[in-house]
Amino acid sequence: MQEPDGFDRLYRDHVDLIYRYAHRLCGETESAKDLVQETFLNAYQGLKGFRGEAQISTWLYTIASRACIRMRRKRKGEPEHELSLEEFVPTSEGEFRLQIPMEGLSPEEALQNKELRQALDQAIEKLPPKYRMALVLRDMEGLSAKEVGTIMGLNERAVKSRLHRARLFVRRELSARGITHHDDHKSGGMRS
Amino acid sequence: MTKKKTAPPKKQSGQSSHRHTHGQGHCVDLLRQLSAYIDDELPSDICREIRRHLGACPNCEVFIASLQHTVTLCRHRPAPQLTSVDRVNMRRAILDVANAR
Fold first, then answer.
1. DSSP secondary-structure letter at A177?
2. How many of the other CB atoms lie within 10 Å of CB of A66?
3. A89 inside domain
4. Distances (CA, A) of A46 to A40, A67, A170, B54
5. Rounded to whole angstroms, how far apart are CA atoms B75 and B65?
6. What average pLDDT does this structure show over B50-77?
């Protein structure tokens, strides 16, 4: 058995961070919990070998990311879909000018629009996993491209390329839904 | 040698003053660089060039605004929280499996 105190501290300090990441990757609660357990089980077994070369959160993100890929392969095994930049080049004036209803609203107010929030969730869920991971780590977890590269085993250029395609994908999905402004944000909290 | 000044493109009636060249030229180059522009990772001369293009091209201006909105929404997307019961149960489950191995 390992040092339980060290593990307890690791778990207490990082379980919320890793659950948030897992939920953003998996999109639903039970898979996220499975991923958290797998991550901390691996961390428990590897804690003695952790030499502190990276931040502990980066180490945990890396374990979680690898575990997510493994769990997904077990479930599906289908090849990753590649996103090419060309598919995002608008082919018509109308497509170029599709908009997302946010003018005059704070992001929090905009996200009280249930339709927009659902469209965002679905767009992220539809992203091929390696693009979703780059988007979640960079734009939601707020890590630098360098940190994302360390976690995903990529150079910064590759991270930025995946991130750009992921953002273009989500932008197209959101704007193609033709969501319009409505007054959800005026009537209080989130209603899902 | 003196450079010849090129004549500005003639406006065609019934069309916007900026003619969009989808699939080629500036707009596509810009599309490739938009994330780097949003993340403030481009050299200042390229940023200036992009701003100049955006000023002349309403379509690209709308496009970049929608991409910026996308990034903003992602950054503010709410994340669910674990309950304290879940935290305790998961910790116990992890230690049970670890100790059984």
1. T
2. 16
3. no
4. 9, 14, 36, 51
5. 15
6. 92
Domain match, A67 and A112 both: no
**Hey, is the C-beta of A163 within 8 angstroms of any chain B C-beta?**
yes
Q: How far apart are the first and last CA of chain A?
A: 44
Is the domain of A101 the same as that of A183?
Answer: yes
A121-167 pLDDT tens trace = 999 999 999 999 999 999 999 999 999 999 999 999 999 999 999 99
Q: Which residue in chain A has the smallest CA separation from B31? A: A89
Please give, rounded to a whole number of angstroms, the shortest distance from the CA of B14 to a CA of chain A: 15
Which residue numbers of B have CB closer than 8 Å to A's CBs? 20, 22-23, 27-28, 31-32, 34-36, 41, 58-60, 62-63, 65-67, 69-82, 86-87, 90-91, 93-95, 97-99, 101
User: Which of the four pLDDT bands, split at 50, 70 and 90, describes residue A180?
Assistant: low
**Count of domains observed in chain A:** 2
This prediction's pTM? 0.84
Searching chain B, which residue's CA lies closest to the CA of residue A88? Answer: B31
pLDDT in tens, A78-123: 667 899 888 888 777 766 666 777 778 899 998 888 889 999 999 9
Whether A92 is in a domain gets the answer no
